[in-house]
User: What shape does this take?
Amino acid sequence: QVQLQESGPGLVKPSQTLSLTCTVSNGSISSGGYYWSWIRQHPGEGLEWIGYIYYSGSAYYNPSLKSRLIISVDTSKNQFSLQLSSVTAADTAIYYCARDAGDGYNQFDYWGQGTLVTVSS
Amino acid sequence: QSALTQPASVSGSPGQSITISCTGTSSDVGGYNYVSWYQQYPGKAPKLMIYDVNNRPSGVSNRFSGSKSGNTASLTISGLQADDEADYYCSSYASSSTLVFGSGTKVSVL
Assistant: This one.
């Protein structure tokens, strides 16, 4: 079955850029009908949709993060990535990557295990 | 884009039925039949339980069912079991190709 795995630094300094990569295995990121997503969860809090991207490169972002956010895809490596700039302590969270099987309509059927990113000097 | 509103906690005894509400607006829950529900155990990734308001993925127990009326969606768990104790989140497609999650509900089995 499809597997997703997040990777990247667990500690980022304030004002710097948070960069994470999600590697997809046992499935092609270029398969149509799927959107590849980032979701985060602040410690002890609820889920927050960050954004998603189609294999073609079309990306859609949470309006509250849009000015600091870039989501990109590398089909040759079967990976997609997240870059969040000018981070603050408020960006400390568990970051999940997930597959939306609902053609972008909110059907996250496969998730990574999540990676904790702490923003601190 | 505000989070959908869910009760902080819902509890029930084994065998009972409970319902979790998820209230949004006409721009999200009320405007589209794209409401999903996720179950999350502590320290684990969420699991899809319901999609498109009332559809269950393969492998999800038929004790879980979803519905929607106006701007409010609901998840009903019937025949409550001990391992249903978890956090539950609703989510909805919203306008302009965005998604929004609910605030989350902690389900306790008494």
In short: The first strand of chain B starts at residue 9 and ends at 12.
